[in-house]
Design goal:
17 helices, 383 residues, 7-stranded mixed β-sheet, 14% strand
Length: 383
């Protein structure tokens, strides 16, 4: 509805309330795979002009993704895997890393508050991209992890031991490395490499003792069977469904204009967006529990020291920490473990005619509608 004097859209409370509820009802119907892809589609299309500008700026990134010369040439491909020399490199220009990560991952990217460091995984031989990694300030409370460590609140916040763990927020292989050669396991193991541990210490002055991460589909994930990672269990699975940004910003603006004190408190709180959504729920008379999904995430932890858990409980001093041999041996251990598995995986897929040679790159989602995107990419989510 337009104001007849100023020709501007007036806020229609009931219409916008129904739009808000309809959006949440739609999001609630989505499976975990559909929800993941829908967020990816939104990420690439909510600011179409800006995304297209970036696509032109970074058009050379696609050609810098590692691919075997001829995946159907068995002898040559095995030789190329044997000669691969993965290494971890700090991402100096965050915008380039973010765009590559956006293009190669099924999951949308959102930066965590607090500490953040981004890395590429590249091949020394070809200098092509094998994947991306980002680590950030660890989540303050995950029950299965805290039970495993036997962590108290004082350990985490008074003794500041939470600063000695991080969370792997992006652990993403490029394709076709990921599916055909267990690239996800390679990138996951490299999260514990000395390059990443040393950079954490250099940036923050804290020894990195452990790494937490979670998976999309419960405990069955790329982290299974990796000697660096321990499967701890599943998250509670009660996470609030967040409305699309367009719907959210409409109501955030309303809250700011009509209840500024509430809006300011929400923005100043930990988790400002969720705080704002909770306040919008109250004003609309919507029960938050109605809009929670039950998607359970697997929880995994890499403890890099023999007495790392004791250190995190403040039972031993930093000078007494003893690193486990596999982490001392660093990338050499990872390569000796990963390469035979990668080659066996490739041979099995080759022999069964199940190879996926395509480079998964989401640039062609830009400009597509949701139904087109779902039809083309739903089967690739989590690949």
């Amino acid at each position: 509805m337009k104001n007849k004097f100023f020709d501007v859209e007036e806020f229609d409370f009931e219409v916008e309330k129904q739009r808000f509820i309809d959006n949440l009802d739609f999001l609630k119907t989505l499976s975990v795979q559909e929800s993941t892809l829908y967020k990816k589609w939104q990420e690439l299309n909510k600011d179409l002009y800006n995304t297209q500008q970036k696509l032109g700026r970074y058009e050379d990134l696609y050609d810098k993704v590692w691919r075997p010369t001829d995946i159907n040439n068995k002898k040559l491909t095995i030789s190329e895997i044997e000669n691969l020399e993965p290494y971890v490199q700090l991402a100096i220009v965050p915008a380039t890393w973010t765009f590559l990560r956006t293009m190669i991952s099924s999951m949308e990217f959102s930066s965590n508050p607090g500490r953040n460091i981004k890395f590429y995984v590249k091949d020394k031989v070809t200098e092509k991209y094998l994947g991306v990694i980002s680590i950030a300030s660890d989540v303050t409370s995950i029950k299965v992890r805290d039970d495993y460590i036997k962590w108290t609140k004082d350990n985490k916040f008074v003794d500041h031991k939470l600063n000695h763990t991080c969370i792997g927020t992006s652990i993403v292989p490029t394709q076709p490395l990921g599916f055909n050669f267990l690239g996800g396991k390679l990138i996951s193991a490299l999260v514990t490499s000395s390059t990443i541990r040393d950079k954490w210490y250099e940036n923050y002055g804290d020894v990195l003792v452990g790494v937490t991460t979670t998976s999309l589909y419960g405990v069955h994930s790329q982290y299974n069977g990796i000697p660096h990672w321990k499967t701890l269990g599943e998250s509670a699975g009660k996470i609030s469904i967040k409305p699309d940004d367009e719907v959210y910003f409409t109501w955030a603006k309303w809250l700011k204009e009509n209840h500024f004190d509430e809006y300011k408190k929400a923005q100043d709180a930990t988790g400002p967006k969720q705080n704002t959504i909770n306040r919008i729920f109250r004003h609309l008379g919507v029960k938050p529990k109605k809009y929670e999904h039950g998607f359970k995430r697997g929880v995994f932890f890499a403890n890099m020291y023999e007495n790392g858990l004791e250190y995190l409980r403040n039972e031993v001093d930093e000078k007494d920490l003893v690193m486990k041999p596999k982490f001392v041996n660093d990338v050499d251990y990872i390569m000796n473990w990963w390469k035979p598995k990668a080659i066996r995986r490739y041979i099995k897929l080759y022999d069964n005619n199940n190879l996926k040679p395509e480079t998964l790159y989401y640039s062609d989602v830009i400009g597509k509608n949701w139904e087109e995107t779902k039809q083309q990419y739903l089967g690739e989510v989590g690949r």
